[in-house]
């Protein structure tokens, strides 16, 4: 049997090198496609997302509300440390974000909106049934509500007007402070949820 010439050996080495390069390139390209690039947002991006602390409250129908109610969909949570008898700035802000998303009804329906007042409003219980099925007022006794406020931060100025974006995995993905206007928040929500799909 004849030994391959040096020219043939170089050709075989070149072919093997090309095959190795092609396999490595394909593997790297596939890995890159599976790694999500998170968009730049005006709000505060939390990466990696943090688990939401346990929640033991009631919804506006008086039914128990817990972490399982935050799973399977995107949620916006607004904590309102100082609601009064009239509509608060925090509640108005949550409704404005909901309304800003009306231009994208599919996205608007993907998100559930939760409002938790820090103390009970003296008038009748809040209901958002006329606004959207995805809008819920939460409540609980003082201790239960205080636990949620403490878990999300200081119950005074830090949480006031801050919206918390919770993913379908019941993890905190982003927050939007009082410095973020509602138009920008709606745009950020669109970008974040699109990037996650």
Automatic annotation (TrEMBL):
What Gene3D superfamilies has UniProt attached to this entry? Glutaredoxin
What protein name does the entry list? Uncharacterized protein
Q: Which organism is it from?
A: Candidatus Thiodiazotropha endolucinida
